[in-house]
Amino acid sequence: MGARDKIRAFFEKNVGKKVTTEQIARVAKIRDYQRRIRELRNEEGMQILSYRDRTDLKPSEYILVSLERKPRFAHKIDKTQRARILDRNGLTCAMCGVTAGEPDQYNSNRKITLHVDHIDPDGPTTDDNLRVLCHNCNEGRSNLVTPLAPSTLTVIRNIRRLSRDDQRKVYLELKKKFEPTA
Each residue of 141-154: b (16+ CB within 10 Å) or e? Predict the structure, then answer.
């Protein structure tokens, strides 16, 4: 039995329970279990959630919420198309303008990585429906309940390009507008 099979069986035995990365590594007898978890999510549709999906989970915890399978990606982007889209977009995030390898402004131990993203998640895997996003923008977008209009994304992109001080000024102005004064 391979590592992926062991991890699948472990999650299925512990459906609805938090499991730790230490437990997963011990069961699978490998340290590179993250790739296997991504395969179980994306290829097999297992509903494995992490701290990015639920606030009650720590970075070292996962949970399989149900045995029901829901494939996350109906379409794949092949390597050639991915390279073409990255080249077309100049290896730059379409939302915030950062490039691969730059320091991550939210995590000093991490460098920026780029992802090819479907503009319309339910749309086709055509060049016109694909764009480049950095990992921060891609993760933020996946947490949105409703997709944002292109004009709103442009505003967000422009704000993210500002200095930290200027971003804070924008935040404070918006906070004044939307929070009632005491």
Answer: beeeeeeeeeeebe
